[in-house]
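note to self — DONT lose this again. spent like an hour looking for the file last time. sequence + predicted structure for the chain T wanted, 256 res
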Amino acid sequence: MIKRIVVRTLFIVVCFLFFVVYLAPANKLVSMIDLPKSVKLYDVRGDLWNGHVGTMDVDKLRLSNINWKLNVFTLFFSKGMTVNIKDPEVLNGSFDVNVLKLNKEIRFQGIKLDSYIEKVLPLVNMPYPLKAEGFVKFYADSMVLDTNGNLQNIDGDAVFSDVLIQHPFDSSNYIDLGTINVNIKGNMKNLVITIAQDSDICSFNGNIKLNNFSRYELEALLKPKSSIPDNVASLISMLGKPGLDGQITLNYKGNI
């Protein structure tokens, strides 16, 4: 008799806790999560399994219209939830994020993001003003940040298409860079960016190595093509003279 009472009591308690969590509003659940200091969430609605964030601030980046979905599959394989972003002002995409270790790290998986270059460029701290147009898609199997937002590991690819970049000495003209394929691999201390660009006016292939985001090393080959405009040719001539193979060797080192 006592055993039956204990079993039934435990069953009722488990069911009660399950439905409390299942039906609990998302804003209450989010308030219980130890989010990184750089992350702020506003207008949180929904529940544990399907939720909505009106606005999210991550340092200087602000995103809107974010939705999440949590199910047994994502919880088991990615230890987290699937997040979808449909922000018309910044980007669109989806990824899985590990929400069970947010107090130790921020691990993203299955990242698929796309946007317009002119929308994401202002988010990048450039050493000098740069205007560009085009479309960008980013893919990565995983990316890990620490709780301060510092990059711990990344291995991803970005494809920039229909790229137009403003001529540095003639704001009325844009340089057609065509398609640019970029691979990003490493961490904050040692990040390698591999670039392969090709268009009707030139091609560029090389690596940029970043150490602690404070020092860079560029090694690349730049090849002007016959259809290059005069104003771009004069600009490229400042970088060096082509060798017998028609390519200009670029080697630069310095501090960011």
